[in-house]
Every structure is written in C-alpha cells, then in structure tokens.
Specification:
The structure holds 2 protein chains of 2 kinds. Chain A is α+β, with helices and mostly antiparallel strands. Chain A contains 8 helices and 7 strands; from the N terminus they run H-E-H-H-E-E-H-H-E-E-H-E-H-H-E. Chain A starts with a helix and ends in a 6-residue tail after the last strand. Chain B has 6 helices and 2 strands; from the N terminus they run αβααβααα. Chain B starts with a helix and ends in a 5-residue tail after the last helix. The chains are: A alpha+beta, B mainly alpha. The interface between A and B is medium-sized, with 14 and 14 residues.
Chain lengths: 176, 137
Amino acid sequence: METKINILKSFFENPNGKFSIRQLARILGLNHTTVRQYLNKLVDEEFLSFKKEGIYVFYNLVLSRKTLNLKLYYNLEKIRKSNLIEDLEKSYDLPVIILFGSYAYALDDATSDVDICLISNVKKSFSFEKYEKILNRKISSHNFNRLSWEKAKKLNKSLINSICNGLVLSGQLEVL
Amino acid sequence: MNFENSLREGKCKKVMVNKIRALSLIKSSKQAIKTAKTISLNVDTSKTILRELYEGLRECCEAIGYFKGYKFLDHESIGYFLRDVLNLQSVYAKFDRYRKLRNGINYYGESIDIETIREAIAEIPQMLKTLGKYASN
C-alpha cells in the first residue's frame, strides 16, 4: 500500500498532469526499470493509463472511484501527518472541524484550496503557513462561532450545504 | 470502543440498582453546578469552574448509572453509556469534549479559553436538563 501510494504521489499531487518514466524515476530516486514495473502494475490495476507521444510514453491518473478512494486516503493521511487538526484542537478548545470542498472528495488538483470549517467560540488567530507548506495547498479556513453558525444556516445555505457534505475531522456537527 | 467493550473489559460493572446512592449523587451534582455558577468568571477561576461543572455532569451520569444498575470505573465508559444505552449521541459528543478539556486541565496543565467556559456554563445545565429525564427509576 505504502509503495503504491508513494508511486502515485506525483499523480495525486497533480491529478491532471502526465508523467514519463524518466520524470518519475528522477522524482522517486529509482531506476527506470523499477519504475516501469511499478507503473505497469498500476496500469493493470486501472489506477493509471498511458499514452504514447512520439518516442515517449506518458502516464496519467484514471479518475475512477477506486482511484479517488485511494486519493482520499492519501489526502487524509497528509492532513493527519501535518498535525493541523491536533494543533487546531489545542488552540480552539476542541472545536468542530469539517473538511469540505474538493479536497474532501479527493477531486482537488494542484490549484485547489483545502477548505476547512471551524466552529468555536474561541477568538484567536491561527497561522496556516506551516501546514500549507506541508500540504502543498492553500488552506481556506471558514470560521464560525456558535451564533454566526446559526445565522449562516439561514443566510448562506449553499455554503452550509457544502460544509454539511464534508468530513467531520473533530467534534460533532449539529446540523439541526 | 462501545459500552459492551467497557463491560467486557471491567471498566463498567453491573451492580444492584442503588436509589439512595443515585439520589445522593444527584444532590451532589446540583450542588456542584450551583457552586460553579456562584464563582465569578475570570482567567484565574476558569479552570475551577470547568472542573466543577464537569463534576456536576459526571455525578448526574453516575446517578443514572446507579438507577439502571451500572457502576462506572472510568469516565470514557460514562460516555459510551450515554451514547449506546441512553441513545443520546449529541449529549455523548458534548460530554466527551468536556471530559477531554477537563483532562487537559487536570493532567496536562493545559489552558482554556474563557469563551469555552462561557459555553460550558450555558451548555452543561442544558445537558443536565436532558439527562434529568433518565435520573429516576
């Protein structure tokens, strides 16, 4: 699993990108033959497809449910390893934290933000810079206190719907 | 983890229903909440207030346990009891949050924001109101 994710990492970071064996061998620090073997296996498993362009073969991600499930695991593991949630929990006294938007559906690409909704009555500023570097994505934090959350339910239904369709990473979201 | 696991692992025991102890705990719970409300809230008293509020909440849960014939040996089991036996998912989530916050204060010297205490002052009595329905045999 780890090896598979390690090989797919470049594709997950840039799902619309295409990579040659030479590029991937350089990124992964492995020789061409090993990389080719891994890639062929991933093509057989339908995570990747390939296309010949001139003398080069380029591989790209197949955006199937199977691939997206693995990419979601990759996204969540990246968040876990960054300690972002733990640090937010400490700073905001165990708030409700919801991951929503494209990153929560594994539909993010290199230009996508990581959308986070944070519900807490604690008023504090929090720097996301460190975590943005680790995640290689900009973090958009949508902060609410209990009162503004209740107001938003009435005034910004589309945002609230997106949030409610996300993944609760900490606490419990009370929708009703 | 769930309540069944707690029972199996001996973190919660089946005991005889003990109304006298339950009623005594309810009295104690009410006293703790009353005390918490009399303390004026500031940075120096915030931890004490949360400890007292949590204590009131825990005592009420322990009382319900005695009414139903359970004795809890750890606080996590109380949470599972609320969720799995009483089917109070929302109360469980709140209880577990306050349990973790109180543990942070008691055992790890963590600080707590005054707004969180304000929230607890409003929320814990509400939780006790919900639990009140179960605090009798």
